Each structure stands twice: as C-alpha cells, then as structure tokens.
Amino acid sequence: MKVACALFVKNEIHDITGWIAWHFAIGIDHLYIFDDHSDDGTWEVIQAAKQIYSIDSYRTNIKEERDFYIRQEQSFSSAVKQAKGIYDWLGFLDGDEYLYINNFPNVVDYFSQKKFEKAYGIAISWCVYGSNDKVIANNKLTVDQFTKYNINPPDADGFGLVKSFVRPEKVSLDYSNPHKLNVNENHYLDENGNVVEWRGATKKVNWEHAKVMHFICRSMEHYVSRIKRRVNSDLSDSIGYWDHFNVNDADDFAPLSFSESARSIMYKINRARFFNALKYACVFPYKNYKVISLSDHIVYRTEHAKDVDVFEIRNINGDFLNLNQSGRISSEPGERIYLCKLKGNNNFYSFFQKSCESIILSNDTGGLASFCVAVEDTGDGHVAIRNPYEYNYLTSPPSHCDNLEASFSAKKILDWEKYTLKKIDYNGKVPYSSVSINNEISIDDFIHILRNNIDTMSVYDFCVCLASVMDTDIFTLKSCMRNLIPYT
C-alpha cells in the first residue's frame, strides 16, 4: 500500500516546511507539489525538501492560463495521471490543510483497512481550527501552534466540506471542485467506510477515525496575507471570513503525537535550505560553481580523542547537559553530551555524543551550531556558549522549569546562559575536522577554501570554516542569503 498527496500552493513561506514535514511524519509516501508562482521563498523551500524526500515539484504557467481555478484543476489532473499505476491512494490538499489519522500509527495502516478494499474515493471531513488568539505569523509547526477548534460545527456554512483521497485509476479527470471528486458515488465512502450521503460538496461531519485539520485563520498576519492574495478573486476585503471561522472552543492535543517526528523532518529541510542559500550566496557568482548538497557530502569524520580536549558541561544550577528523548540538548536525564575543542588557536568547540550522530539544538538556523559553537569566558568562573552564525547564546532553564530544553534564544549573558566545563579523560571517538583555523577569515577567504576543497570537505569542515568568518563579513553573508531566501 502506497499513499501520495498533491498540494497546490502559493506564498506559504511560514508554513510550507511544516506542511511537508507533517505529511511525511504521518506516513505519506510521496508528494506532488504545484507551486502557483510563489514569490516569498516557498518554491525554494520545496526545492530543498525534494533533495532529501520523495517530492515531484512543478510551477504553474500563469502566462498561458490566467484563471486560478483552471490552474488548480490542471495541477490535480497532472497528479492523477502521474500517480496511476504507482500509488494506491492520492489525496488533494491545500497549504492550510493537514491530514490526521486517529488511532492509527500511520496513513498506510488507515487506508489498508478491509472496509476500504472496494472504495474508489474516501471523503474526509474538515475540522476547522481557530487562531489561538495569535497575531504574528512564525515558522513553527502549525499543528503545535493552533490547537483550538470548533467542537460543534454546523454541517453547512463551509464547516461540512471535505477533502478526498481517491484511487488514481478510478477518478475521472472531469474536475468540478477540490472537495468532491468525480468517482462512482456508490464507491465513495466516508471515514467509517459507509457510502457518503452527499449534500452538494458537503456531508455530515465525522472525526471518529480521520479528519482534515483546516487551519483557515491561523494568526491574524496569516489571515491578512490570505486576503491580500485572494481579494477580488474568491475573498473580499472584510473580517467576515475571520469572524465566521475563528472559533476557539477547546484544545485538541491528540495530533501532537506526530509533532516530534514532524519537527525532526523540519530540522533536516531547514538545514538543506540553509546550505542551498549558501550555495547561491557564495558560489553562484563564480564560473563552474559546484552545488553544495548535504546528500553529496559526508557529515562527520571521526578520530580517536587521544590528542583532543573533551569536556563535560553543567549549567549554572549544576545540571549536566544531556540528550532528552527527542534527541535535543536538555538538562533532563539522558545520554550525556560533551564539548570537544577544535584545532587551532580559536575558541571553537563542537557538541557531540558517543555515537557522533547529529545533535539537534532549538533555535539553530540551518542546524549549524550542532557542528560548531564559540565558548566565551564570562569572567566569573563560568563560560557562555554562543552560536557563531547568529550571535545568540545558549540558554539552559533550571531543573524546576517545565521546559528543560536548551536553546539559542538569548541576546545577552545572564545566569541561565552560564556553564562550567570540566575536562575529562575520554576514551572514544570525537568529530574530526581537517580544517585548522587560527584567525578570523574574510568572505573571500571562505569562498577560496570552499572552491578549492569542496570535493573533500565534510559538512562539519564547512561549518567550522563558516564559523570563522569575521564578524562584519558574517552579517553581510547572512544579509545576502536573506535576500535570496526570505526568512532564512
């Protein structure tokens, strides 16, 4: 059993990473993504994601077809043609719609149920979520942010609409709307396996086993952005749409069981996206440039710790820094993490664990600080740990706090940003970099190293070099990347 999904999207830079990550986290095998000429960086995120996940991506042709709905129809018809003979089920969703399967570990187990053996299509009810009273949009996972929903929606007035998953061989390409597709109605079933009793493109709301979480409003900034994109098309310059759907009756935390897996996928996509930005910012202006791709390079090389200084880390409260169950740095009990000193006359260190696998840090743009951090003396017997790419300090909340995850969230050094390092005898392997940095380097030096060593550099080597770029130049470099890919 293989399940694919088609997405038609435009200008969803805040949420596209999370949307892609969510659907792979719940077990979708493949995505067909049709970008309606986004100009906010959405297309670039999709390109980064397809480097590491199973995605086919396309851009619509606005010059040839001016009608939005016809472009949408053409995109979904293209997905149906491509999915035939490859995928058992194909779903159709928008960028604010997230499939959720209740009481099943993944979508494959849900669609493999015996009751769907003779189904040609499955209509899955919308569940409309409100704004959680949020005003500003951000890049966090939508499902984590907007948990409040309408617990007693009417079947009409938009709440009873559905989105469908169909067998590609059984759906006609005669498209009328994105909700009810053209399959034999005797084989069009609801979430429980019963023949759908249609009321136009709506049906009785049912969330028992599956639902499409529809984040129509999200934050107020999201809503304003939606109106700007679609005013004089299918929406008006009014808050009526917001007032109608922004219902925040109760919290729905059940879908959060997939959040950790989704956030892990987001982390990988953001890291690939960051490297793509660096490629265009640093390498593209030169002839015969070579593409930097995580999939083409070794992440870590390791060496025995014989000649390397290794340290345990405690926060100011005396708590060791460990890896929690989610694989993130925290003061919770877990596998111990260490810092090792990098080669050269510098203040650079690297976090690592015994397995030398990648470590995840919260608020770490592109995942780069997991490779290299700067350690600064605070003058009172402690040190601070700084992200050399962002100039944020690592904060470790004390053990009495609810959230014990460490994150690069502080702009200045207070108590929670102070640590003690204790040198230890360590008999194991540590991350190895072939690069030895004794002084800050310029952007030109960085590009020179990159171009001359790109075939042999590990991702770790690359991050060490990037961390060494002098303060004035690193801000120039990041500014350049933000112009290329917004919200980097």
From TrEMBL:
GO molecular function, one term: glycosyltransferase activity
A Pfam family of this chain: Glyco_tranf_2_4
Primary site of residence: membrane
Subcellular location: Membrane
InterPro entries xrefs: Nucleotide-diphossugar_trans
Membrane topology: Single-pass membrane protein
Gene Ontology terms: cellular component: cytoplasm; membrane
Record keywords: Membrane, Transmembrane, Transmembrane helix
SUPFAM superfamilies: Nucleotide-diphospho-sugar transferases
Record has Transmembrane helix as a keyword: yes
Protein name, as recorded: Glycosyl transferase family 2
Source species of the chain: Acetobacter aceti NBRC 14818
Species classification: Bacteria, Pseudomonadati, Pseudomonadota, Alphaproteobacteria, Acetobacterales
